[in-house]
Amino acid sequence: MLFFLISCFSFILLLSKSFLKPLPTMGAFSNLWFCEEFLKFLALWFSKGRNAISFLNLPLMRSHVKSKIENVVEKEEEISLLYLPDLTLECIFERLEPNGLCNMAAVCNSLREKCTSDHLWEKHMKQKWDALIGSAAYREWQCYIASRNKDSLLENSRKKRDLFEISDIWQFLWNRSKGSENNSKVRNSSAMSSIMDWYLSLESGRFWFPAQVFNREVQNGHVGFMLSCYDAEVSYDCSTNTFRARYPAHGRRIIEEDIEWNRLRAPTVGTPPYVLHVSDCLNDLKPDDHFEIQWRKSKEFPYGWWYGVVGHLESCSGSKLNCHCHASETVVLEFKQYTPRSRWRQTVINRKDHREVGNEADGSYGGIRKLYSDREISLWKSLWPSSTLE
């Protein structure tokens, strides 16, 4: 190819010399036409990349171009996400889902520190778990953390006790000095009680927390629990987006599966399931008020909360203008999910001196809680049975 270029330039040089001589008119035009076409050919040749540098194959030029390309690549590789301003990183992390935050936290120590901060996980905690996590669940979480730390300390002490059985004392001292840092890391990680740790413990189902379940065991055919709410320990199943519940019962423990979100709520009062709730709303009860009342089959069983509406006395006509039921010491409680002939349809309590009332056949009624929130009332109504119960 080099020979071809030298020949071409030699030909052009000779041709240019011939232009100095006088030629006939047609010959001059033919020479000019030839030069123009030849220059077009060279321009087309070079435009296709077949330039002199590639044909000459100069090693010095290639190495210079290659070094420039490598420098550009190195500069591009130096760009990192950590070079972004902190405010920009915060905006990015706030838009990530929990799985994205976990993936980012596994990249490096710097991102782990940023992606595990409480203010990022607090938003996800409120969005998904705020309706179910109450003060009782928070206390249970603190006990769970304390128990986990205690187990970690016992495990570390057991390992240290086993090390004393090693005959070689120097080997023991070396292992202890080497393992001190690892033990501190395990202790710190086990003591971690951040919001991220709490969120992941809930999502994984490892943490069972107190909640209340509406219409327990109705899916198993127990229609007698319609419009009731019982205390339980629940655990989340992320594969089905449902819950498992363990009920405190007399005898064997009952476990229910596949509980939907709309059948759960956080405990509304701090009264344990076996303790009578102190009623503070008896003087405020009047006809058409909505309420929840404790009921249990016998003293060996826990209380459940049952939904009802305050009714009118038999002596009252039911007219709002002439009703004086709110001034009477007797309060009529109606459970309209049952038929009028059912023994569960109605009960009567004393407003002034209400304690647990009932018998072995019909069970016992306990404390009363008046419902003031429209949201709570609408939740109970959404669980109303499709047909009246006997």
TrEMBL record:
Keyword tRNA processing: no
Taxonomy, superkingdom: Eukaryota
Keywords for the protein's UniProt record, in alphabetical order: Signal
PROSITE patterns noted in UniProt: FBOX
InterPro entries for the chain: F-box-like_dom_sf (IPR036047), F-box_dom (IPR001810)
Domain F-box: start-end pairs: 78-124
Signal peptide start and end residues: 1-16
Name of protein: F-box domain-containing protein
Provenance organism: Anisodus tanguticus
